[in-house]
């Protein structure tokens, strides 16, 4: 009988908040969201080496520095927007003095928070480190007091499933596989626009607005390139990002009938078929590329076979 799947949320040491681990059969799943991109790595458990340690929690130091810097930054910006950034010869008004006192109060509060967080930073936190061979990929996460018991049970379950692999007839896998999916470029656009506009706001130099204009031109160029792709392909991309893989397959199959030589359709069909467990059809899509892209087609076929084997192990079929 296949072991029951289990999942836990983890707090990664590199401060990526949305991350999880799972065990399905004898496969360890590691997923995370970084920005607008979701990714999942499927790791045969025999490729994982487990170790524990202690380390400083960098987010506490970052929070300490921000608690010291942000009150000053917002105070300067607020004062500049209200009264101008350039120095003036006339005496400060009552309103301006009130703002300065408010900024000073914010700074004192931030100073206290800075000292508290700095002390917390020097208290090391227990961690668990999973090293994935042969790439040497490291998944390190904190073992907080309230979650320590759950993490210990999960780590022990990894060891039990490693023993299942060593006792079974199934040979060890050579590497993990995974997917990554970017939802939208808009968060990147907003971040770039904010950073590019700051010099113009701080210096009050309209000429520096050329920087955010350059970002907008880059985004417009990307949109133009995207609009040049066939409608069915764009529809398939939208369905794929929504998680509606059946609609994505239908759109891609229609495009394939209309434009049989449109190469990107075979790449995306191979990926969608693989994600839906239709591995033979995915292999067929990879075979269409063997004439023009023989090396890439062989690599795709190798990946698809590995996905198929790992899928069987997730279902407990290879135990």
Short description:
The chain is of the alpha+beta class. Helices cover about 55% and strands about 15% of the residues. Strand 3 and strand 4 (about 35-45) form a beta hairpin.
One letter per element, helices H and strands E, the order comes to: EEEEEHHEEHEHHHHHHH
Distance between the termini: 9 Å
Can you tell me the overall shape? flat
Largest sheet: 5 strands, antiparallel
In the CATH hierarchy, what is the class of the largest domain?
Answer: Mainly Alpha
- Counting structural domains, the number is 3
Low-confidence stretches: none
Please state roughly what percent of the residues sit in beta strands, choosing from under 5%, 5-15%, 15-25%, 25-35%, 35-45% or over 45%. Answer: 15-25%
CATH superfamily of the largest domain: Tetratricopeptide repeat domain
- Gyration radius, in Å: 26 Å
Structural class based on helices, strands and sheet pairing: alpha+beta
**Within the CATH hierarchy, at the fold level, what is the topology of the largest domain?**
Serine Threonine Protein Phosphatase 5, Tetratricopeptide repeat
**Portion in helices:** 55-70%
